[in-house]
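Narrative of activities, Objective 1.

The group set out to show that a structural description can be obtained from nothing but a protein's sequence at a throughput compatible with the screening campaign. Below is one input-output pair from the validation batch, recorded exactly as produced.
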Amino acid sequence: MDKKVDFMPENTERFMGKDAQRNNILAAKLVSEVVKTTLGPRGMDKMLVSPTNDIIVTNDGVTILSEMQIEHPAAKMMVEIAKTQEKEVGDGTTTAVMIAGKLLENAEKLLDKKIHPTVIVKGYRMAQEKAQEILKEISLKIVPSNTEVLKEIAMTAMTGKGAEDEKEFFSGMLVDAVKAAGVTRNSDINDIKIEKVVGEGIRNTELIKGIMIDKDRISIDMPKKVTNAKILLIDFPLEVKSPEIDTKISISSHDELQNFLDEEEKSIKGMVQKILATGANVLFCQKGVDDFARYLLSKSGVYTCRRVAKSDMDRISKATLTKIVSNINEIISVTLGASEVVEEIKESGENMTYISGCKNSKAATILVHGGTIHVVDEVERALLDGLGDIASALETELVVPGGGAIEMEVSKRLKEYSQKLSGRERLAVEEYADALEFIPTTLAENAGMDPIDVLTELRSKHDSGNMSAGLNLFTNKVENMISSKIIEPAKIKVQAINSATDVAAMILRIDDIILSKSSKKGKMNDLGSLPGYMESLS
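Output recorded for this entry:
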């Protein structure tokens, strides 16, 4: 008689075969459903409330998913798609997650027909490769110097977000910022600093040629404005270093105490003298500055800011052509940075430091205004999407029609391609093509339109050769997207299709889940509702 053998610990949960596949697919579908209603210019917003009652109001896919405490491992893989899309392109996160969710949902139909997961994955890979060929073939070339096209790309990216009402105003600002900072690819957009101030309306947002940081001078005795600034950047504290372990100092007399304090002052005075010896009249310190050091710097007229963020230090370093010094003994050998003016200015009641006329003129700051912190945060996310789209378009110099047009055209051509295939992979390619139609269908749903009527009209237009036919949700009509100036970088679609296919293929190939339970709350079999895998918002 066979005996049951347990070879895993008691606190281990295991799902095999069909249960594992369906469990993962359900998790992916639920993640897709979470962001589905945010897609497009008529998408809705989500309010995320943390345990400490911090509030985020947004329809940005990656922000929504990143802020949620998602427990399910397959659902976490879906979140990674959004993060990858954000990192590589800066926009299209909702699209990528939705396509992945739909690919897995459609794969479930094929699994019900007893088609093996490896066959589905093979078909999906064939469709992915063909889709990329189609995208390359039908993408439109742009001229990077064409400012109007770049503005149209930015406006498309910001539509449906917090900056939509002023998208024409912001699109011009973003293009100017990109040109000022010399941005040519997505990774360069970090050179454009976005600073936020609560106060006034979003129309008061301004582009500043230079760098602005949310730090003021540490003493009113320091000059408020420095011309011909000689800038020194340090990332060590101007303080007496504290011992790394608990230390007790025994002092038995007043003289000993005074000697101890004198030694501290002597140490700080020595550091300040080395700084002054460089000839610097502006100092940015990443760490703290002691009160005695502040007094000495004030006395010498050195404009000083402390606890400056690392990202701001890097920008100042790049703009003023100087290095960040990490050791006091190396300070004399560094070449100081230079700018025409460093001054403290007041914006909406907040003191900030403005660095203008930098040696490296490729420095730009967008100062965002808004009525509340939630407004300025959402405007910032919209501007980052616009910047990402412009940078992606400049990098590849390729764009595609928006409004679901490109998904419909790729879907149509994939269906034509599937007719040439034999075997069960053909069914997978057809389901892949149907998954792409999920984007225009959802755009229609979110605008309150009949998705079946819209999809029928779109198919008719594309079958008749109008590859740019998409959904203009400002007129609620199917139009030529190029004529309607609704265009997107081709890189968004390329990355979304690649990421979605990769994660769908990976999830489909999983047939065994071994879950080591811990004291954490999430359980694999609690996926019948959203709270089952998203315990709370963080």
